[in-house]
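#dry-run=false #mode=assembly
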Amino acid sequence: MSPALHEFLSIDLGPILAATFACVSCALLGNFLVLRRVSLMGDAISHAVLPGLVLAFMITGTRDPLPMFIGAAAAGIVTVGLVEAMRRYTRIEPGAAMGVVFSVLFALGVLMLERGAGRQVDLDADCVLNGLLEAMIWFVPDQWSQVLTWDAIASLPRQVWTLAIVAVVVSILVAVFFKELRIVCFDPGLATSLGFPASAVNGVFMVLVACVTVASFEAVGSILVIAMLICPPAAARMLTDRLRSQVLTSVLIAACCAVGGYTLAAFGPGWFGASRSVSASGMIAIVSGVAMASAMLLGPRHGVIARSVRRTRLAITIATEDLLAWVYRMEERARPAQIELAAETIGSSGLTLKLATARATRLGLLISENGNLRLTETGRRNATSLVRTHRLWESYLVERGGYAPDHVHDAAMRLEHAVDPDRHVRLEPPEPSTPLDPHQRPIPPRS
Amino acid sequence: MISGPDNSGTWAAIIDAATFRAGHNTTLVLVGATLLGIAAGLVGVFVMLRRRSLISDAVGHATLPGIATAFIIGNAIGMDGRSMAVLLPGAAIGAATGLLAIQWIVRATRLTEDAAIGAVLSVWFGVGVVLLSVIQTMEAGNQGGLKTFIFGQTAAMSATDARLMGAVAFTSIALVALLFRRLRVVAFDEAYARSLGLRVDLIDAALMALVVIVCAVGLQAVGLLLIVALLIIPAAAARFWTDRLMPLAALSAAAGGVSAFVGSVISASFARVPAGPAIVLVAGAIFLLGMLLAPSRGLVAGIIRQLSVRTRIQADHAMLHLATVGPMPIETALPPGLSGLLARAMLQRRGLVRCDERMVALTDAGLAAARLADRRRRLWRLYLIRHADIAASHVDLTADAVEHVVDPAILARLEAEIAAEDALDPPTQWPGRDP
Amino acid sequence: MANESRSNSPGSLLFDRPEHSADSPLSVHAMTVAYQRKPVLWDVDFDAPAGSMIAIIGPNGAGKSTFIKACLGLVKRASGIVEFWGSPYRDARLRVGYVPQREAVDWDFPVTVMDVVCMGRYGRAGWLRPISRADRQTASECIDRVGLAGFESRQISQLSGGQQQRVFLARALAQEADLYFMDEPFAGVDAATERAIVRLLHDLRARGTTVICVHHDLQTVETYFDHVVLMNMRIVASGTVSAAFTPENLRRTYGGRLTLLAEASEAVARAERGT
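#status=ok
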């Protein structure tokens, strides 16, 4: 048995397990908070349970989980109830109501902690914020093979046990009530009318959030609880469009954050030659933030990068179409289509236009000869249909829309790119009465 | 604690502190904290009206990494890492990055503001916690002073720090006064402000800059976890009492100042009472007072009003029902529930109904009252139909006597109309009360 | 025809009315809804004729949506009785369908068209029981009927406004109800969708289903609906379109709102010329 392994198993494995269970439970519930746009209720509850926790501790004098649970859950219910009552009976803005309730309760909790310190309360503010992740020591296992024996599991630190049970219970509840949670989050009115009373479901759900918050609290601290309620679900939200896959993705992300964050905190400083580890719960929060930021940037459909690529592509497509139509008009008037002139008439940026020219040339629609552009056969066919649509729109706007002939060009420029979302064909207005557009130019026939 | 452990927690200590006789340092801290409370109350009003209350929570939390970084850098370049001059810019920069991150997330992604606030709040704080543990690694024990920023501790403030806090708070009060008119337009009607050609984004940025300044400067007194309370609670408390901006701002500033002053005095006079929670709890008490007692927006008034409207509607309906149908089981006339019970009690107290075990019936007085109620309803309905463009939501058919609201000439016409209708189609015989 | 219009004349006493017939899909009696001090609906009495298409019209803030929500118990009634086929809503829940306003939900929610339409079956499935294969079959038939076949696995934000409204309609169809409440089903949809929705609603009527729609467009009242309820905090008039949709009733409903009034009387004039 290597001493390094023993150290890992007894010092690090317990916290890793505890953090993973806590993160998974929080992330599971966080999905529904994020979707209902009440993420900050998690923030509020995790601050506001403090007085309940301290009160339970002061009354019983022990850190038994059960009274702590009851105290904290009671405080959670009081918070939810107060915020809801203020929303219903006073005209205070909901955000402000939430802020008032949780900050006052939190202040009360902090004060009780400080005042209680004289009566040897071994619960302090630091532990509330950061948790006691590092303090969980697992005495039994010496080797990997012993980890799964009954004796080893039975001697797991109490927090690990509690969190494991909480994680299992939360997973079962979310799986069993998935349908109900989905409809209540999506359409509370319909849910209520179908016999799933939305406010009752939400109330019970918030109590569950309070319980999970409390259970995770002493292990990982309140700040990490908030991070885990929000970051993994928000990251998953950027990656998927199905509720089921969002929930599963968020759980996966949460577990990775817990393991990765703890590893970085415990062993990361060693890689830089420092001797002591840094705060594990803080590091897990950072990792979850990094995960969320990556998802926001790199998400395949909704990520910022994917979106801007799509936007640029669309801009280039539109610029290409505009360019083809412009060359067509220049050829119609028997004037040379000089590249420099294009920028003046087409409202796209210089770079977009350059890219559009390159694209049109690559697709064999345009030929560029010493600064002049010329349509190919395919290019002319495309351009004809574009100009036709444009002039049809102009006629339509003048004849039916009552526009003045000199005001229709810009509107038609936008409309000619409009595509029927169902059939993916260009929208075309009905044929006008004359074959000439309002500027007395011929409308090309359908190709 | 400043006044020493000998008279800690006694009335003498409280009075000493409150009358600025507890020492030069305590006096400076008290004045500084009060100015901070006033500044936070003022800024908070606009933050609340712009519906940004919870952003300030994230701003408060986001100062921690800034403080820790400033401490590390300050120490590295040989300055006192714990002096306000080093930490204040750090806190402001940290808060500003958090704020920008929230705005970016909301603008550039599909995530909503609540998720952005929560994520930034926790991640930035996580960075701060890790940096604190790094500081601990670097020079053991030297970061003890930094922890006070989390919960706030006026006792640890030096005279210089207190002066700085007071000066910055005073400057932000002056800034609010300077920007007051612009802030007012933006807070009440963004679209109108735009139409006036005001740069709403700039004004918003200025407001958020004020939030950052208040958060940064309030750290030492209130702590970064609770500074949000000083921005939210006074404004929310003032909201109960008035609808107009000037009184709202004045009340909020007063509430903020009083909370900060009283909280600091309590903290200075008792052992183990950190200033942050004390200030917040005083503010909370002021809020609670408003919530319970405010005449039109308060919680109690709201509940009473709703119950009494329901009770009156129930009572009215029950009377009319009894008048048309005759005696009936109680639960038919008055559906179970609080308002039903109250309605029954009201009717019985006024001698309008008689109840036995199961049945309820109208008395003579009740029958007369029912006739009166019916006439009032008919008049109202007719009035609303004939003059529909006066918003029906401005009247309460059960409460307002039609005679008080409607012009006598119109009333006479309506009465004539009802009489004519009755002559054409005589009203149904009312079985009335118990024979 | 005239006696079918039961104008809520001031002469009628609150409780002086004929007994509701038990086969009326919806009978509302003396319903009052008040938010705090603000009354929203006063003494509403209404009997929906079975198998008809009923429009609820009235100005903004007249309590039209509140009426629907109060019938379904989504907002608390201060007083009054609402019965569906003579029994309370709790017992008739499966026979009543509800289509909320399109803006009432978050269209960026991570659900597909199929998921949303399946929600129409949740009421039948009840608590804890998952959606069965037969339910999915029904849902996909309903998607077909609204012309969205092939869109089943699309996320709902990728649909146009008209398609989103069709999804809501398909979900309502999946409920297989006998009475539908629809809150502005025609708001913000394209002409093709509007025609499709009307066709579907007329199909429903032909099978004896009752549909109650909050409706905004006075121009189309007489072509789409056969009954109309004019509402402004109270029911001003109700009855067949020909009897109740009169300029006088519209004036009483919309009061001094002149633009609307002009629009309405034009619509009525056109209708009169047409008949």
